């Protein structure tokens, strides 16, 4: 079986590499020549645990290759996956220009039956737009070539994407013909043989399933953050509340950790897009609008705590910042709460020295010399007035507190991820400010 995947961003690269791992001959395509040349040499543009080794292994086996040309890799394919970006427009809707450009190029170059699979997260109705675009190009060529479209949304967690793909909770596939279904069944047979469920459905349901899943997870995060803020007001501890409600199997424990709000490439964009889709149909998703509002407020909560602690006098204060990525085990800073904090602190006249195991280059690309960077977590602490934690990296969880105490100007920690025990911190003599506790 042979497939091509257009787009070597997070989704396309993980998808292509993991499918190649099952023995499928896979070509990943991108117009970025520098990126493709790097990938051909095993240079991976994103940080994802296990991905680099898997890419190198499949390059050497010949099951994975990279190219800048879709035209040169469309022949003999059973399916072509579209995994290009769908960035949010100014009004919050998903920008489909790249998805439709791929469809246009497929229609201009295909010579035999294909299943065109949308892997990108796209609004309901996108598959029909893709189908119409391909058909228009075929009509311009005056050829009659049969094809099908399919929706196959991804459910990957950054930082654990390889495991998510190879051992999925479920694989959702939207199809509209038995022929397309058979090809997709064949593609995912290695996973179904291992007992991973492949759920076939109509295409609009598949498209909506992805948005609904991310919106539900975002809702849980905003819910527990709202409860955490109430905990502080009434004197409760959100950790206890989380354990109390999370033990109910109808609710579950996951995504019930209070903090500084969700970020990344999926939740903010997908919540906005789903709200916009509903608005366009004259239906208001009131719960999700509240979820989005709570999250935006939550991103500022650590700054508000810092500002209150110093009574609004932040000029020339120096802060050590541990964590820049929106979550651990990734270098992704899209919609990262750290960016909100950095902007507010620097505007207030504060200085920041940051450390993140993976995201510092990405931070430099985004904000340049707005802050300073340290070579390790302890170097960032030198003469800082306080430590701020914004990402829950494993190496931050059990630091050398004696070294922290020695290097910090004052024993003050603002913890946006609740990774330390308040009672222990009190025993250690720290002024410890966290979320909902």
Can you walk through the features of this model?
The protein is of the alpha/beta class. It has 3 domains: 2-201, 3-Layer(aba) Sandwich (Rossmann fold); 211-298, Rossmann fold (3-Layer(aba) Sandwich); 301-433, 3-Layer(aba) Sandwich (Rossmann fold). It contains 18 helices and 14 strands. It has helices at residues 10-21, 33-40, 51-61, 97-109, 126-141, 161-166, 178-187, 189-192, 203-234, 238-246, 267-280, 286-298, 301-309, 337-347, 360-367, 394-397, 401-407, 422-427; strands spanning 2-6, 25-29, 64-67, 79-82, 114-118, 147-151, 171-174, 198-201, 318-322, 351-355, 372-373, 386-389, 412-415, 431-433. The strands form 3 sheets. The protein has a 6-stranded parallel beta sheet with strand order 3-2-1-4-5-6, with helices on both faces. It has a 6-stranded parallel beta sheet with strand order 11-10-9-12-13-14. Helix 1 (10-21) links the parallel strand 1 and strand 2 (25-29). Helix 1 (10-21) crosses helix 3 and helix 4 runs parallel beside helix 5. The longest helix has 32 residues, at 203-234. The chain starts with a strand and ends with a strand. 44% of the residues are buried. The mean pLDDT is 94.
